[in-house]
Amino acid sequence: MGVLRHEPMKPETxxxxxxxxxxxxxxxxxxxPLLERFSRPFVTETxxxxxxxxxxxxxxxxxxxxxxxxDESIITDLxxxxxxxxxxxxxxxxxxxxxxxxxxxxxxxxxxAAAEAASLAARHPVNLEFDLHRGKRGQREDxxxxxxxxxxxxxxxxxxxxxxxxxxxxxxxxxxGKHVIVSRGELIEIGGSFRIxxxxxxxxxxxxxxxxxxxxxxxxxxxxxxxxxGLLLKVHTSNYxxxxxxxxxELKDLVAIGREREVPVMEDLGSGALVDLSKLGLPREPLVAxxxxxxxxxxxxxxxxxxxxxxxxxVAGTQGWIERxxxxxxxxxxxxxxxxxxALEATLRSYVQSPELLNEIPTLRAFSRPLGEITxxxxxxxxxxxxxxxxxxxxxxxxxxxxxxxxxxxTEEIPSKGIAVSGRGMTAEDVARVFRGAEPSVxxxxxxxxxxxxxxxxxxxxxxxxxxxxxxxxx
Length: 475
Description:
The protein is of the alpha/beta class. It has helices at 12-18, 22-26, 32-37, 40-59, 71-86, 112-123, 142-152, 163-175, 196-203, 218-224, 251-261, 288-293, 319-327, 330-333, 338-353, 357-360, 362-368, 371-389, 428-436, 455-458, and strands spanning 93-95, 130-131, 136-137, 156-160, 179-183, 189-190, 194-195, 206-210, 229-235, 265-268, 298-302, 313-317, 393-405, 408-423, 441-443, 445-447, 450-454.
């Protein structure tokens, strides 16, 4: 059997002379298949980068065998570099983190109907702003407004690209240049250090704080109203809870004050629920329909949290105020594209029409899956995991809890089951790295120095069996 030997190292100057030109490599027959797969400018620029990396390595004194500089070897390295560069930045992962609506992993999964609607809108022309009955230009939000009115009982509705945008649009439309009265206990911060006072400042409205961090009373609002007041704002503290010696003003009381003093009332519900979560064994969240019925002039909420749809900011309220928001030039800057609108319409249509809503909306299905079903799935997947990982790993079914995530019901945990994975001589982070290296990546969590795969957030238990490339396979 022959022994593969590299040529001996050569002096730096000689190695630099042996570097081929870009044109020579590009004209090599072995490069032809790459030019069939990728554009010539992309291949050329990537090849320049590769040759420059080799040049810098030689100058830095890193010993390179001269056969690494042969055209065929460079083309082999070029193919690998092109494949890495062509890999999309957004790839599929398995969410076994124990957080159902994980912001970093894309929040709510779309239903099959919503995904199909978005795919149709992406692949074909659609009547986005065309009235097929009249043969004239139509309104892009008509179908969604109709569904939202039916689901919430509101006189009118609108949609923008997320709930922060809905709040911004509401503040700017209803109270630009005027005072907006809000409790100090409701000046929330959401993800990414995005704060209500900062949104208000950008809207052109002027913040007027009342009450204290833990206690605000109806008289605090009433006494703060003057000729400069444009809006009373209530913010649902969906991502934290104030307990103990605390008091807040209920929406019905705030509406009564607003009606008496002729000041509109807006509520930012944050997550926003269209169904009663207490029927799923979760604490009750305010229903949008209830807040509308209490008399809020404008209610804003998210599409991609508890509702289980695409990212969107939904607005329900009285006709006059919603019309003012729709006429605002900001509305166009904040509007949704056709893919979002298609997926959102399909999601809302499921709420109105589906007899199997809990099974049809993935988010609601994750909330409501019976623990026995989750346990059985974990038992079924344990031998598959053991077989895939090999004898140097231990896996066991353990108790777990799941968070809803994305700021919704932050203090609540849903009973779940998890699979704890440990490897001989490995830390929990080492094990996590192995699973992240799978295709698709499996994202778990580390708890008390144990790597846990949560079965409720993952959905399909077999998705937890990692497909490991050879370079990642445990020894």
